[in-house]
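Progress against Task 2.4 (sequence-to-structure conversion) is shown through the following example record, which the project officer requested during the mid-term review.
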Amino acid sequence: TNTPEQDRYLQAEKYIEFYVIVDNRMYRYYNYDKPAIKIRVYEMINAVNTKFRPLKIHIALIGLEIWSNEDKFEVKPAASVTLKSFREWRQTVLLPRKRNDNAQLLTGINLNGTAVGIAYPGSLCTQRSVFVVQDYNRRMSLVASTMTHELGHNLGIHHDEASCICIPGPCIMLKKRTAPAFQFSSCSIRDYQEYLLRDRPQCILNKPLSTDIVSPAICGNYFVEEGEECDCGSPAACQSACCDAATCKFNGAGAECRAAKHDCDLPELCTGQSAECPTDSLQRNGHPCQNNQGYCYNGKCPTLTNQCIALLGPHFTVSPKGCFDLNMRGDDGSFCRMEDGTKIPCAAKDVKCGRLYCTEKNTMSCLIPPNPDGIMAEPGTKCGDGMVCSKGQCVDVQTAY
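Structure tokens generated for the chain above:
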């Protein structure tokens, strides 16, 4: 089992500031059409983001470089050689110029063998946080699946065994895929969590600024981008009560975002300045509740009747006042409060703030709920008009709180 601190780290949203290089061969393959290449890359990033969302990872495209004149290092068909060259180029040239968490080379070269991608395993936030993908198919979704697969390796995820399943398939980390993959398997999620706790990559905890993101703003992708105030995903998925998922704008001030749950709770309203609903707040202590049967106390409406029902069941109610008068005796069972180990009897006005007495409906008994020390009236319980129990005394509700 994990420590609370480990669980906090696992649950935290992760952000990969992602840099993509399109090499010269891919540029030529798309007939020197930079706008078309950009759209293709933006669509891929969007697809990759969708696949990583269940892992609480957001991919933020903070740089897209198209090598329209020539490659900045020699891109070779040997995948491992190109990966090493790309790693060295990122380290010496790209990082000093533009900080990033991970970089990808998207190449038009035909990599040797059956490989269409290669990555350093478990390498995020290190000098080896790079991968190479061949743009091997016109179908964007297939290449986006390969991007997700190789970035998965960077995140410590191994290839799936035969026993690993995901619905719908095929799984993203299968070694060989012929169709676009949509989901990580349970094995992949386990690998990823083990990698996170082992290596603790820190660079993925900071959220990129909206001005750093170079891809066009898409309302519904969980990123607050230029022109958006909030982004909580699709209208069906949105969990932010004060963000309008359809427009990615804050809901107006005064819109109710959390209804009052009961008499002693207050409704919360959006501020117009935040996507989140304000903290749950309670009705003030002493506010009348349950048709004036009680007064609010710390978000509850304590009454003697409810206390009897909670302890003994729905067939019980509070005893008549005659039973409570026994609290003036100050003996073993009937008293108002303890002082230095001594049971203090109740004054006549305080009897309903001492030992609790309940009666089975349609009987006249004075029952004491079973407890060796007796059950006392709860603090804040109404003991008369405008009066509540406080420290074993029946006091004015105006001065009690």
